[in-house]
Amino acid sequence: MIGNWIRTSLCALVISSGAAWAGENEEYIVVQSTTSTQNSGLLDAILPAFETQSGIDVRVVAVGTGQAIRNAQNGDGDVLLVHAKPAEEKFVADGWGVQRFDVMYNDFVLVGPGDDPAGIKGGQDIVAALSRLSQAQVPFASRGDDSGTHKAELRHWATAGVDVAEASGGWYRETGSGMGATLNVAAGMRAYALTDRATWISFGNKGDLQVLVEGDPRLFNQYGVILVSPEKHPGVKATQGQAFIDWLISDEGQAAIASYRRDGQQLFFPNAR
Amino acid sequence: MQDFAQEFMTALSLILSGDSELLNIVFLSLKVSLLAVFFGALVGMPLGAALAVGRFPGRRALIVLVNALMGLPPVVVGLCVYLMLSRSGPLGVLQLLYTPTAMIIAQFVLVTPIIAALTRQTVESLDAEYTEQLRSLGLSRLASVPVLLWDGRIALLTAFLAGFGRAIAEVGAVIIVGGNINHVTRVMTTTIALETSKGNLSLALALGVILIAIAIAVNAAVSLLARGAAPQRGELSHA
Predict the structure, then answer these.
(1) Which of A219, A242, A257 is at the close of a domain?
(2) Is A74's CB within 8 Å of B88's CB?
(3) pLDDT above 70 covers what percent of chain B?
(4) pLDDT at position B232
(5) CA-to-CA distance for A45 and A240, rounded, in angstroms?
(6) A132 or B130: whose pLDDT is higher?
């Protein structure tokens, strides 16, 4: 009897799932974005307003900026929302994207164990702090995944004149994964790490880690949004994608970004022009 | 970990109170993996049986290949399926990337070799047992495949369950081809990965316990099925 019931429900499951997907033809766009916008909860918080108003479902694929750009170049997304301005400008210059708009910014912070063995706490100069870390040879957890944060980190190491490739596997440890996963590693091995502030504030496993260096203008973190070129990829839903971009940089979208808070702190600061 | 108990109760009460978001995630996980295993069995079982009873050149090599494919890394399968289904890929026009269908395809690729290899093993021993009888009934080797599959159906449930276990547990393939899109392609394993990366370790672990409970429930259901079917076991010997 139970067997029969299970058999029947399995059959029903198989049949119903075909039907369920056939009916799923609502309007939607795919946004290739970064882990920071998703892990911080920003997109979950602001998207419903746009979706209700426009009737367009926004499907977010959150990966590192490098992978997001590659996916968009393959035509697997309608809109790109990332944070690596030089790479974004190249994306547009190479014809993959239509036009880039500033959306919002926040900043990167250098976090590390509370007892701070390298003694960089309270500093404001990111380059000096990184030099210090390389001299002290204390563990540093890097994204190592070609993400926006990773690109920014590598720029600062280069400015500091430190060859991290040489230290890789030693004190410099590349996790090759997202920001949260990297912070988990840093918490586990009491390592230093560079993170965007939004992910940091909303991260739930800080352990002994705390913010040690912040406030350097070079730690500025700008997000941009780009419509993937319908000329390169005719499948791109240009009208709907542009509608989303227009909303994001409109007063309403900008206000939604500004009003998103975690633990009373604003995570992203709108600056579309 | 002191707040694990609390998080677990939260997750459990979400399930029990019928939280639609979590239930949808659980339902999608089951749907994707069961369908992948269903189609995997449809292909893998006849394939495995044919490998067991067939006599053709290259059979040994094929068996070794199928056995080796049991260890396919999910992330590689995910990447290959992504490259096929990407708009720039050969099957891009189908627009299947970032849909549950893409996830079923990826898991199908993962589980079919497992089901085929385990079926081959089961059927081979049945074939050795019954081969004279089958020949005396005038059945050719290939014609005996359905008979052997039917007779071995209880043992073959293990192959089905092994495939299901692989499918429901993997994250590497579905996160690439599904994209872990909220309300569309987010399943248990990708949710766990996401919560882990948010640093919500207790919640992630609680969801993991629920995932294991679901796997146990499915296994229990299948073994009940098997018990219902058991009395007819061995009917071939009376044929």
Answers:
(1) A219
(2) yes
(3) 94
(4) 52
(5) 20
(6) A132
Residue written as tokens 């994207």? A97
Same domain, A129 and A189: yes
User: Which range marks the domain in which residue A233 is found?
Assistant: 26-105+221-270
Q: Residue A121 domain-assigned?
A: yes
d(C-alpha A189, C-alpha B93), whole Å: 46
CA separation for the pair B215, B121 (Å, rounded): 24
Segment 160-179 of chain B within 8 Å of chain A by CB: 179
Set of chain A residues whose Cβ sits within 8 Å of the Cβ of B228: 2-4
Residue A66 lies in a domain: yes
Let me know the angle formed at the C-alpha of A126 by A219 and A177, rounded to the nearest 5 degrees.
65
| pTM across the whole model | 0.87
In a domain, A86, yes or no: yes
Q: Are residues A187 and A93 in the same domain?
A: no
Tell me, yes or no, if A25 comes closer than 8 A to chain B by beta carbon. Answer: no
Flag if B88 and A14 touch (Cβ within 8 Å). Answer: no
Asked if residues A196 and A106 have their Cβ atoms less than 8 Å apart, the reply is yes
User: What's the pLDDT at B142?
Assistant: 82
A99 and A120 inside one domain: no
Indicate if A225 and A214 belong to the same structural domain.
Answer: no
Q: Is A266 in the B-facing interface, judged by CB distances under 8 Å?
A: no
Q: Is the pLDDT of residue B235 over 60?
A: no
Q: In CATH, what number is assigned to the domain containing residue A200?
A: 3.40.190.10
Which chain B residue lies closest to A39 (C-alpha atoms)?
B198
Residues A175 and A111 in one domain: yes
Give dist(CA A58, CA A79) in Å, integer: 10
Instruction: Clarify whether residues A182 and A96 are in a common domain.
Output: no
Which of A198, A219, A240 lies at the terminal end of a domain, its last residue? A219
For A145-173, the pLDDT digits (tens) are 999 999 999 999 999 999 999 999 999 99
Helix axes B201-229, A2-22, angle to 10 degrees: 120
Low-confidence ranges of chain A (pLDDT < 70): 1-25
Whether A75 sits inside 8 A of B101 (CB atoms) is: no
Judged by CB atoms closer than 8 Å, whether chains meet at B197 and A76 is answered as: no
Task: Report the gap between the CA of A162 and the closest CA in chain B (Å).
Answer: 28
* Residues A196, A145 within the same domain: yes
pLDDT above 50 for B239: no
Return the pLDDT at A256: 97
Domain count, chain A: 2
Domains observed in chain B: 14-188 (1.10.3720.10)
Judged by CB atoms closer than 8 Å, whether chains meet at B92 and A62 is answered as: no
Report how far residue A83's alpha carbon sits from residue A102's, in angstroms, rounded to the nearest whole number.
10
Over the stretch A58-105, which tens digit does the pLDDT of each residue have? 999 999 999 999 999 999 999 999 999 999 999 999 999 999 999 999
Of B100, B199, B224, the CB nearest to A183: B199
Establish if A178 belongs to a structural domain: yes
* Strand pairing report for A97-113 and A209-213: antiparallel
Helix axes A238-248 and A42-54, enclosed angle (nearest 10): 120
Report chain A residues whose CB lies below 8 A from the CB of B201.
Answer: 184, 204-205
State whether A39 and B198 contact (CB < 8 Å).
yes
Say if B157 is an interface residue toward chain A (CB within 8 Å): no
- Chain B: residue whose CA lies nearest to A187: B199
A30 and B CB contact within 8 Å: yes
